[in-house]
TrEMBL record:
This is Uncharacterized protein. It comes from Rotaria magnacalcarata. Residues 1-20 are annotated as: Disordered. Residues 1-17 have a biased composition (Polar residues). The lineage of its organism: Eukaryota, Metazoa, Spiralia, Gnathifera, Rotifera.
Length: 31
């Protein structure tokens, strides 16, 4: 599942609930 994020950051959500923020990416990517 991917969602738009206004800051242009990417958040990777793992099954363990860990959120990984990555700058300068156009969207949030859910693993």
């Amino acid at each position: 599942m991917t969602v738009q994020h206004r800051t242009g950051s990417k958040a990777s959500f793992t099954n363990g609930g860990t959120i990984i923020m990555r700058p300068t990416t156009p969207h949030w990517h859910m693993l």
